[in-house]
Every structure is written in structure tokens, then in C-alpha cells.
Design brief:
The protein is of the alpha/beta class and 117 residues long. The chain has one domain: 3-Layer(aba) Sandwich (Hypothetical Protein Mth938, Chain: A), CATH 3.40.1230. Helices cover 20% and strands 35% of the residues. It contains 3 helices and 10 strands; from the N terminus they run ββββββαββαβαβ. The protein has helices at 51-55, 75-83, 93-101, and strands spanning 7-11, 14-17, 20-22, 26-29, 32-35, 44-45, 60-65, 72-73, 87-91, 109-114. The strands form 3 sheets. It has a 5-stranded mixed β-sheet, with helices on both faces. Strands 1-2-3 form a 3-stranded antiparallel β-sheet, covered by helices on one side. Strands 6-8 form a two-stranded parallel ribbon. A hairpin with a 2-residue loop joins β2 and β3. The radius of gyration is 13 Å and the shape is globular.
């Protein structure tokens, strides 16, 4: 949805999206929440962790790396995104959700959030 603020609140281990509370890592695409986004190696985003996300054909991915920024996006993921002309941002989740909320056009944007550390 264009310009709509989906995410109302974030705090350690909890995010509120469209009045619903989530406590597991997730990602968003076109107003849809994909719950329980799991990674093979929890705090390290690897290529295989993005298979479902890449099927959505995003033009941009916003990674929320947790309250303290402990989730890291691997160099191989960054290289893959660069080679496919997919823009990406990697910030602590509190900042990442603000970036997402402030986008005028959220079409083709995935926001992937780690909710804890």
C-alpha cells in the first residue's frame, strides 16, 4: 500500500503491525506479514534464508538487525542482491521499521525483521 504506516510499535522481542502483536522474526511484503522468518544460522542471514523473499521479486529489502544489531547480512547475500540490482538497507530494527514506515511507496519492498538481540 502506498504511504501507509503498517508498523505501529517495536520493542525488544515485539512488533505491532496493523494492531496485531508479533513476537517472532518476520518479513512484510505488500501489506502481508510472513510470520516466523527463520534463518539457518540465527544471527547470520545467508542466501538460503532469502529463497522465499527473492521469489517475491523485491526491488528493495530492508533488514532490521535486532535491538542491538546482532543479526548480520552475509557478504554473499550482499553480493547476490547487488548482482540482481536489489537495493538493501541493514539497520537496527527500531531504525529499519521507521525507514519502512516512511517510504512513500512500499510496493516491491520487503522488510525483514529480527525482533530480539
Amino acid at each position: 500500500m502506498v504511504g501507509k504506516k503498517l508498523i505501529q510499535e517495536y520493542s525488544f522481542g515485539k512488533i505491532v503491525i496493523n494492531d496485531k502483536i508479533y513476537s517472532k522474526d518476520l518479513y512484510l511484503f505488500n501489506d502481508k506479514v510472513f510470520e516466523n522468518w527463520r534463518r539457518k544460522n540465527g544471527h547470520n542471514v545467508q542466501i538460503e534464508d532469502l529463497e522465499e523473499i527473492l521469489r517475491l521479486k523485491p526491488k528493495k529489502i530492508i533488514f532490521g538487525t535486532g535491538a542491538y544489531g546482532l543479526m548480520k547480512v552475509s557478504k554473499k547475500v550482499k553480493e547476490l542482491l547487488d548482482s540482481n540490482n536489489i537495493e538493501y538497507v541493514s539497520k537496527k530494527t527500531a531504525k529499519a521499521y521507521e525507514i519502512y514506515n516512511n517510504l512513500d511507496d512500499k510496493r516491491y519492498v520487503v522488510a525483514a525483521f529480527h525482533l530480539t538481540c
